[in-house]
Write a structure and sequence with these properties.
The protein is an alpha/beta fold. It folds into three domains: about 25-120, PAS domain (Beta-Lactamase); about 215-285 and about 295-370, Heat Shock Protein 90, CATH 3.30.565.10; about 385-515, Response regulator (Rossmann fold, 3-Layer(aba) Sandwich), CATH 3.40.50.2300. The chain has 15 helices and 20 strands. It has a six-stranded antiparallel sheet. It has a five-stranded mixed sheet with strand order 8-10-13-15-14. Strands 17-16-18-19-20 form a five-stranded parallel sheet, sandwiched between helices. Helix 5 (about 125-170) packs antiparallel against helix 6.
């Protein structure tokens, strides 16, 4: 039976073979972009999707003239795949066609007859997301570096300015050495201002936010801004009469506006107009500004426009990086815009720049809108309170905990000069050992935040279990160490940012003692 079936099968005619699909219509109907390349990367065939992706009819052209960004000749990659020297793989390449910047993902596969098949897909959104991530990582790394450097410098500047203050106490203004000491103090203050700019960029500075009206702030700045821009430039303000409130540090916001106005002035050496506009903006949905996205919500917008030389497209993505400047050597530090960026971001706002070379620039600042709140003024200390404070100082004991020996030496001498009893500790563990003696009475803890071993907030919380009425002052080169959750780790604790002066330290200790008596 098997033999009969085989014989019958052999006599049956073979089914017709399907003709190879070589028609252009079938190739064009493929839902993905496909190219057929020769070993030299010449395009033998391209379907409709590929032509649309690459910006027009591309058959007969060389792929090297349409795409770039591989890092080597595109033809070498195609030749290696065609010869079997590599398995192909996938690369993201830049499209050279005119119009908006686009990227494609190219996958190569070795085919028959010395041909290579290339499958393309649009990777523009992926490339934009990658660029955003890289920029975010770069800014974060620079911010961490700037914050670390600023923290260490603040310790050094505290020791320098502190010991300079101690020396100046022993010299009157007629002393020949007083002028030299004054120069040291002034230059140390200039260094401290530079460090504050680094902290502003890294968003680790101490802010004192308050509900405020931008119109009042800008009105108070008008005289100073007009002096900054000079006679050749006209400064104009345009305010929304129903402008809402914002919550920001007034002094730092003034610094942002001044930095933007100074940059606008420098972009117009022959004069021109600078316009500062404020208005309310409501976004019903997230809005894209370049590579950043502004969430939906209510904002107060500030725009600073100039008619200057503008910013080149290649430089626009780097203007907020510290030390980047397009000015000539010696004309700028490159910290103005990075400082503005850090202050705005730490305030919870956003800053963007639109610029056209030869036409001017517009910086737009967006701050979350707030409703007007009642502002409560702190009560002035009474005469009775001052008497209590003076009496308390004579017997007050301060426990000073600081791992930097020069800072500890200055702070200890400063407090002793004001009549305080001072106990010193180089670390948290030493401080807790001193406090193990219950007979020891301590009125104020003055402690650094970051120290080897146990940090300042941790040992203070431990010590307050047995001494709940002790007042606390934290010191730090920047505030993020202690206010990472937006509030002090100890109720009613005071914060003293470094670098601080002799009077700053003694005044804050006195204020904490006065609060303890109330």
């Amino acid at each position: 039976a098997v033999q009969l079936w085989q014989a019958a099968a052999a006599e049956r005619p073979a089914p017709p073979q399907a003709a190879p699909r070589t028609g252009g219509d079938d190739f064009d109907l493929l839902p993905v972009a496909v190219l057929v390349l020769d070993p030299a990367a010449g395009i033998q065939r391209a379907n409709a999707a590929a032509c649309q992706l690459l910006g027009g009819e591309v058959a007969g052209q060389n792929l090297s003239g349409l795409l770039d960004g591989l890092g080597r000749e595109l033809g070498d990659w195609v030749a290696d795949v065609c010869a079997g020297r590599t398995l192909g793989g996938t690369e993201v390449l830049h499209v050279r066609a005119e119009g908006p910047e686009r990227f494609v993902q190219v996958s190569l596969t070795r085919g028959r007859d010395d041909c290579v098949t290339a499958v393309l897909s649009d990777a523009s959104a992926l490339k934009t997301l990658e660029a955003q991530f890289v920029q975010s990582q770069k800014m974060q790394a620079i911010g961490q570096l700037a914050g670390g450097i600023a923290h260490d410098f603040n310790n050094l500047l505290t020791a320098i300015t502190g010991h300079c203050d101690l020396l100046m106490l022993r010299h009157d203004k007629g002393d020949p050495d007083y002028a030299d000491l004054d120069q040291i103090s002034q230059n140390a203050n200039r260094a401290a201002a530079l460090v504050r700019q680094l902290l502003a960029f890294s968003r680790k500075q101490t802010l004192k936010p308050q509900i405020m009206d931008l119109r009042d702030t800008l009105s108070d700045l008008t005289h100073l801004l007009n002096r900054l821009v000079g006679e050749r430039i006209v400064l104009t303000f345009d305010h929304d009469p129903s402008l809402r409130m914002i919550r920001a540090d007034r002094r730092q916001l003034e610094q942002v506006i001044m930095n933007l106005v100074v940059n606008a002035r420098d972009a117009m050496p022959d004069g021109g107009d600078i316009t500062i506009c404020t208005d309310n903006v409501r976004l019903e949905s997230p809005a894209a500004f370049g590579r950043a996205t502004l969430p939906a919500g209510d904002y107060v917008r500030v725009q600073v426009r100039d008619q200057g030389c503008g910013i080149a497209a290649d430089d626009l993505a780097k203007i907020f990086e510290p030390f980047f400047t397009t000015k000539r050597t010696g004309e700028g530090t490159g910290l103005g815009l990075s400082t503005a960026y850090g202050i705005v971001k730490q305030t919870g706002g956003y800053i963007f720049c639109d610029s056209t070379p030869g036409e001017g620039s517009c910086f737009s600042l967006f701050f979350p809108a707030h409703d007007r709140d009642a502002v409560t003024e702190a009560p002035e200390p009474s005469a009775a309170g001052s008497a209590i404070r003076a009496r308390r100082e004579l017997e007050a004991t301060v426990l000073l905990v600081e791992d930097e020996a020069p800072v500890r030496a200055f702070a200890s001498r400063a407090l002793k000069l004001q009549g305080f009893n001072v106990l010193e500790a180089a670390c948290a563990e030493d401080a807790l050992s001193l406090l193990a003696d219950q007979r020891l009475v301590v009125d104020v803890f003055v402690t650094d935040v970051v120290m080897p071993g146990m940090d300042g907030p941790a040992w203070v919380c431990t010590a307050l279990r047995d001494r709940p009425d002790t007042r606390v002052i934290f010191m730090s080169g920047y505030a993020e160490d202690i206010f990472s959750e937006g509030r002090p780790p100890v109720p009613d604790a005071a914060f003293l940012p470094k670098p601080f002066s002799l009077s700053d330290l003694t005044a804050l200790v006195t204020r904490q003692l006065e609060r303890a008596e109330r």
